[in-house]
Amino acid sequence: MNCSIITIGDEILIGQIVDTNSATIAQMLGEVGVRVVWRVTVGDGAEQIRSAVSEAMERTPLVIITGGLGPTKDDITKTTLAEMFGSRLVRHEPTYRAVEQMMRSRGIEFNELNQGQALVPECAEVLTNRNGTAPGMWFNSEGRVVVSLPGVPFEMEALMREEVVPRVKEHFALRSVVHRTMITFGLAESMLAERIAPWEEALPEWLHLAYLPSPRQLRLRLSAYEVAAEVAEAEIDRRFAELEVILADYFVGYGEQTVAGAVAEMLVARGATLACAESCTGGALSSRFTAEAGASAYFVGSVVSYSNDVKINVLGVRAEDIAAHGAVSREVAEQMAEGVRRVCGADYAIATTGIAGPDGGTPTKPVGTVWIAVATPEGVTAQLYHGGKLRSVNIERSSTAAINMLRLVLTKSSGL
Amino acid sequence: MNCSIITIGDEILIGQIVDTNSATIAQMLGEVGVRVVWRVTVGDGAEQIRSAVSEAMERTPLVIITGGLGPTKDDITKTTLAEMFGSRLVRHEPTYRAVEQMMRSRGIEFNELNQGQALVPECAEVLTNRNGTAPGMWFNSEGRVVVSLPGVPFEMEALMREEVVPRVKEHFALRSVVHRTMITFGLAESMLAERIAPWEEALPEWLHLAYLPSPRQLRLRLSAYEVAAEVAEAEIDRRFAELEVILADYFVGYGEQTVAGAVAEMLVARGATLACAESCTGGALSSRFTAEAGASAYFVGSVVSYSNDVKINVLGVRAEDIAAHGAVSREVAEQMAEGVRRVCGADYAIATTGIAGPDGGTPTKPVGTVWIAVATPEGVTAQLYHGGKLRSVNIERSSTAAINMLRLVLTKSSGL
Question: Residue B13: which of A13, A26, A114 has the nearest Cβ?
Answer without folding.
Answer: A26
